[in-house]
């Protein structure tokens, strides 16, 4: 299984990736994890990326692509991978094709988690986080049995500033503006599929297995 997961914040990429991790021996690769790992280990690429982040600038494509190439060459990717948060631009998508060609690999699917904006706003604005242990709940979909307190440690539950409706809608606009060209780039290719919100009684993984042709 070699797939790209596309989707807005709150679309369910993390949930789906976690379900895949439990069932399939594939590497879950996110841009954020790669950044953190390179910065933590003070790699040359990590130090370059850090200099841009410290200046409040976006990390250039060439650095992001180089980090991704290094990661895809690691042994755990031989059994498959999930790309979460990459590519975010069309140049990144084209660079990924060249990297995979050099590695004699091909993508199985590019999966867009297709969730409407109002559902995403409801999911994210209802999220509550424990101040003590960081556990996450949702007032509608996964409420704490202890009300405004964490079930695990009894800590106070609060709404993060970036989970307010105003901020969420701004984040979604940025996503649509930045990612729309990437979606258009893949949309005409045979491996592109739209995965709607899971139907009642089905998990996102079951929906994915259906569109990629089963679990063999």
UniProtKB/TrEMBL annotation:
Catalytic activity as recorded in UniProt = AMP + ATP = 2 ADP
Which SUPFAM superfamilies has this protein been placed in?
A: P-loop containing nucleoside triphosphate hydrolases
- From its record, what is one biological process in GO terms? AMP salvage
| Residues bound to AMP | 31, 36, 57-59, 85-88, 92, 160, 171
Pathway, per UniProt?
Purine metabolism; AMP biosynthesis via salvage pathway; AMP from ADP: step 1/1
| Location within or outside the cell | Cytoplasm
For the ligand (Zn(2+)), the binding residues are 130, 133, 150, 153
The record's note on quaternary structure and interaction partners says: Monomer.
Which stretches of sequence are listed as region LID?
Answer: 126-163
State the protein's name. Adenylate kinase
Name any GO cellular component annotation. cytoplasm
Q: What is its EC number?
A: 2.7.4.3
Question: Where is this chain primarily localised?
Answer: cytoplasm
Question: What is the main EC category here?
Answer: transferase
């Amino acid at each position: 299984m070699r797939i790209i997961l596309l989707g807005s914040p709150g679309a369910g990429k993390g949930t789906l990736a976690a379900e895949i991790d439990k069932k399939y021996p594939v590497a879950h690769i996110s841009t954020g994890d790669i950044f953190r790992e390179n910065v933590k280990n003070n790699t040359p690429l990590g130090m370059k990326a850090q200099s841009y982040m410290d200046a409040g600038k976006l990390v250039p494509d060439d650095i992001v692509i180089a980090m991704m190439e290094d990661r895809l060459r690691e042994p755990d990717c031989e059994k498959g991978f999930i790309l979460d948060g990459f590519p975010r631009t069309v140049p990144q998508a084209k660079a990924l094709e060249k990297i995979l060609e050099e590695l004699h690999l091909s993508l199985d699917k590019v999966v867009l988690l297709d969730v409407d904006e109002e559902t995403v706003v409801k999911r994210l604005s209802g999220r509550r986080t424990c101040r003590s242990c960081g556990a996450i709940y949702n007032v509608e979909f996964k409420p704490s049995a202890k009300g405004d307190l964490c079930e695990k440690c009894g800590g106070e539950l609060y709404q993060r500033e970036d989970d307010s409706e105003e901020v969420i809608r701004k984040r979604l606009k940025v996503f649509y503006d930045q990612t729309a060209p990437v979606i258009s780039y893949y949309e005409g290719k045979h491996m592109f599929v739209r995965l709607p919100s899971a139907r009642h009684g089905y998990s996102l993984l079951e929906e994915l297995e259906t569109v990629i042709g089963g679990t063999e």
